[in-house]
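Lesson 9: reading folded outputs for more than one chain in a single document. The general rule is that every protein is listed as its sequence immediately followed by its structure tokens, and records are never interleaved. Here is the first one.
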Amino acid sequence: MCGRFALRLDPDEIQQLNGHHASVAEWERRNAFVPRYNIAPHSQAPVLRRIDPETDQLVLSTMKWGLVPHFMKFEDKTLNTTNARSENLVDGGGMWESIKGPKRCAVVCQGYYEWLTKGKDKLPHFVKPKDGRLMLMAGLYDSVVLQGETETLWTFTIVTTEANKEFSWLHHRQPVILSTPESLNAWLDTSSKNWTPDLVKLVAPTTCALDCYQVPKEVGKVGTESPTYIEPVANRKDGIQAMFAKQKQASPKKVAQKRALSPAADSDIEEIPAKKLKPTPKKKADTSKSQPSSSKITSFFNKP
């Protein structure tokens, strides 16, 4: 699955799509997007699509993550459309049947987050392209004017597939990544408005050059932001490397104990003068109680 991703770049840089040989004519609803390291479902994010199925002209469109089908009258918040399983697209039927042919897009990001389950613990990892390019994930989109509303609601979902052998250790699912110009063009070509056998191949598990590393657990909290979320946790100042660095430094308490045991070894330590203590006065023996008892004993033996 894919439940979180990052896109914290300048909008002008995003629109250039460097390295993808794609020319973007415009960006619809550009001001609705706020670059973030921690983009969660129900957030606004840019997707790439063809503005006209009959032409090759591409546009970026800011849409809400979590697809609301065009046939809905109200937004059903219990319906989980963050992801669309590729198997459901291939098998046909269901809510995706009328969408998968004419309304395909590519979700733009720097990389996505996935959580590795270890016992009761869940460790977040960041997955991104090795070459530093933007990642393009296969998606579907739709638009609808809900009952009682006047504005069109644009929404999208991310298509997921079975994880390939390289990433099956992390999770059993992963997003469909459009890593080549051919795969991107084929996915965005909606001129036929149909689902074709070539698209079935596109959503199958494939291998592409990706980096993957553990990142801070704080990314799991929706609404939080930090540039460290896309950096290896080992590189953080409070991370693994820092932990080992601290272990190499002796604890001040242990150093003090060693110095106390062998003062001769530390000639540089300033001697702390001892406090002068007043001598404790000696207590005089109290004989007042013992005298009466002794007189009684002698008087007993002197009796006639």
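And here is the second record, again sequence then tokens.
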Amino acid sequence: MMQEKTYILLLLCLPFSLGLSNQTLNNSINTLPGCPNKCGNLAVPYPFGIGINAGCSIDPWFDINCNTSFNPPKAFLSKTDREVIDISGTKIRLKNYIASRCYNNIGGMTRENIVEVDLGTSPFSFSNQNKFTVVGCDYFWLMEGKTYISKGLKRFIISQGTFLNHTKVFSYNPCGYSFLGEQDRYKFRVADLFNPTFAQRILKTVPLVIDWVIGNQTCVEVQKSSDFACQENSICVDSDTGLEGYRCNCSNGYEGNPYLRPGCQDINECENNPCHEKGICTNTPGGYNCSCRRGYIGDGRTCIAQHSNKLVVYTGLGTSIGLLLLLVVTYWLYKVVKKSNKHKRRQKNFKRNGGLLLQQQISTNEGLVDKTRLFTAKELLKATDQFNESRILGRGGQGTVYKGMLSDGRTIAVKKSKVVSVNQLEQFINEVVILSQINHRNVVKLLGCCLETEVPLLVYEFIPNGTLFDQIHDLNAEFPITWSMRLRIAAEIAGALAYLHYESSVPIYHRDIKSSNILLDENYKSKVSDFGISRSIAIDQTHLTTLVKGTFGYLDPEYFQSSQFTEKSDVYSFGVVLVELLSGQKAISSSVTEDERSLATRFLVSMERNCLHNILDPRILEQDNDGDIIGVANLAYGCLNLNGKKRPTMKEVAMELENIRLSKTPASAQRVSRVINTEVGSSLSMSDINSTWTISDHNSSLSPDTNPLLHDTV
């Protein structure tokens, strides 16, 4: 076999050991009939047997030679001729081997003993209950066999050497020793360094532990063979040494020699009385049963007198009922306190969010009773399934919109703002009152609000068909909007904004007109949306200076520079929406150069260079609507005038769009068609573009200078 070498250098005058695990197992001692069971003081259990080839063992390797020349006789393992000290369970202990080397005072070696043990093909191997021990100074030892001592070791050789021929340590350590022996059997003494009887003491007190197995097959293999050694009521266990072979153990509840017929015998567990003192133990094969004596009840391990049983039952029942009642009362109190705290918190939120002010305004204005509804937090939590993520319709910079369904079956949209400033709450309540009174078919209806939550919630009617933005820019839409639909939608938006500017109870500027804030209902009718917190201004003001709010691409450049928002700022934003409808392009594009990112800028340049056709949506050019297109282009051009005073009012825009929708001018349409399809450089003439806006109906009671309610979008 391949040999590995381990060099162990002893630098200190102390023993060096390789520790191994411990395992012991005891079996009853008996032999085959007619065979001696002892050699001197040593009991020899089967499968070992005394006598060479006497048939007393299971295999010649297990023969024990009993040498009667000693007094008392000594047992030797016949095949190895080594004295057997003990046989127990799956191990035997042999008289040990010890390697040594001694020197005289001038460094001359006086004695050397090299140990070599080879168990070869025997069923034996060195146990891991052994450890390698070295005693001495100025030595190194060589142990051949394995780099570590483990189960299954079959062969080892121990030799040693010196560095200085022991000349430096002779006075207290003339000899060095090394041996493989049972762990915990040797304890180092300083005298061992110079005691000449050290080797004899080790041979007497530290045996060599040997593992043994039966045969060279596994349990699965040998159970099919007539040589199977395990008898009744025993189990076969494969060798755990890493070598082939097996052992036999008695089954649980049995004892005896598992190798001898008739096998292991049942243990009478009742002899140790494992049951209760008032119980009865009944032995069974491989086990036992416990039962209680008459007058007692229980499982035999615990027995209770019957006369005290009722008291125990009643006591246990009463305790259980008491605990149950305590749990019920505790839970009820918890729910009551939780409900009370929730109610107090909602009342606190209601007052903090201006609920009392809103109730006062509703009570003093009879028209608001049916128009402004105060929803409870419980209603909206139920409607939105606890504001479930799956109910989200959209997210914005200031909040999230959820889809919900009220108990009456109405579908709603609930806007949950991220934050509302405390100093704006009174203005917020005024805005709720104002928006609740808006009643226009093209404005999303505010149904009410909830003030019981951390931030106020606004409740709107639900619009099912998404946004105008989605309809314009989804090239794969199943039902793309036609030019006539686009023109109608534009007219509806303009009419709604004109209503907000001039016909609502208090003029309102939207401040964030864009295609994504225009919703489409089931009939693709437009609805202006995203009304959040608004603020009123003094009646004699024409504008309000505020922080710039809005969406890049739709924002009025004049407002952006001055921070002064006027009604014409909404007109500019609407002009961008008109260009979106004409071009099918987004207000801000990331696929062009920085200077051309703005759709409004590209449109104005196209108009000024007489090449409108370059920016128009091919989907509308395919339809016979050229006259309407040029009219809307003229209108959009006016709305995007960088000088706000030169822009038309929303009322003028609405009227112009209605005129375009109702106009019947085939000849003009044919002329415009030719203009649009002309090559670059000979298309639309600037003389066709009217930037001066006059409409006969200027006698309205509301003029463009009427002070509006400025709208801060959320």
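What the second record shows: The mean pLDDT is 81.
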